[in-house]
Amino acid sequence: MLRVISEHFLYREGIMKIKNIYNRELEFLKDAIKNGKNPYHTFAFTTIKNRYPESRTVVLRGFKLNPLTIFFNADCRSSKILELKANKYCSALFYNQERRVQLRFKCEALLHYQNNISAKVWSNTALQSRKCYMGPYNPSEALDEWHPNIPLEYLKTDPEREHSEQGYANFVHIELKIIELDVLELHHDGHIRFITKNGKDLHYIAP
Ligand SMILES: Cc1cc2nc3c(=O)[nH]c(=O)nc-3n(C[C@H](O)[C@H](O)[C@H](O)COP(=O)(O)O)c2cc1C
Fold first, then answer.
1. Distance 56 CA to ligand 1 centre (A)
2. Distance between Cα 58 and ligand 1 center (Å)
3. Is the pTM of this model over 0.90?
4. Nearest protein Cα to ligand 1, atom 6
């Protein structure tokens, strides 16, 4: 009887522990949207290009709970967007080196292009960021010589607001619906790893 009680107690303790880790990591993600010093401000985003995975760094621009969703922005002409149009399943990977925590999200992407959602995000996008969407070339296009793919007059300045509106034609806001989250926290005396699909049921898995 005593053994059954103590096993149940340990199980409850374990679940509480990973719930606390889960909630703490959500707070770090929320902070990372505006805080460039938070390592979760950028993440590795992976799509499938034909049959091969392709990863790149992107900036976290938004985060929502219930259901868990994360957001970033891109040029609609870029390879990653063409890849998402062919296969909406993708992965987002975050790592905080100081706290030694990794978050790996399995995601389904939804593209917001020229709709109410992309318009709202664009209206809050700084002029300095808007010029990245004003490039004369398609991202990844071969160049005969160096070009930064922003209008050359804005190399050292930001565009006028009115001219910056041109960038909206290339702007896409990407919503990543989370299918599963895999959390790994490294410890010298035993790593902790768990997965969740909905944020409510958390399950330990072997590190
Ligand atoms: C720190 C950092 C942040 C970046 N943020 C973004 C971003 O938010 N969105 C984006 O499309 N590309 C971003 N990039 C550029 C991408 O990593 C990538 O080089 C580019 O988008 C082309 O990717 P693709 O050809 O796979 O589409 C960032 C690069 C770095 C180094």
1. 6
2. 5
3. yes
4. 58
Tell whether 164 is covered by a domain: no
* Ligand 1 binding pocket mutation candidate from 41, 49, 58 (most atoms within 8 A of CB): 58
Given a contact cutoff of 8 angstroms between Cβ atoms, the answer to whether 179 and 108 are in contact is yes
Please give the C-alpha separations between residue 131 and each of 39, 43, 165, in angstroms, as whole numbers.
25, 22, 9
**Full residue range of the structural domain in which residue 25 is found:** 2-125+173-204
Q: Is residue 132 assigned to a domain?
A: no
Residue 12 banded pLDDT, cuts 50, 70, 90 = confident
What CATH number does the domain containing 194 carry?
Answer: 2.30.110.10
In a domain? residue 154: no
CA of 73 to the centre of ligand 1 (A): 9
d(CA 28, CA 40): 7
Residue 47 Cα: closest atom of ligand 1: 26
**Which residues face 177 on adjacent strands?**
69, 108
Q: How many domains does the chain have?
A: 1
| Residue 11 CA, distance from chain mean position | 32
Q: What is the pLDDT of residues 102-157, one digit of tens each?
A: 999 999 999 999 999 999 999 999 999 999 999 999 999 999 999 999 999 999 99
| Nearest-atom index, ligand 1, CA of 140 | 25
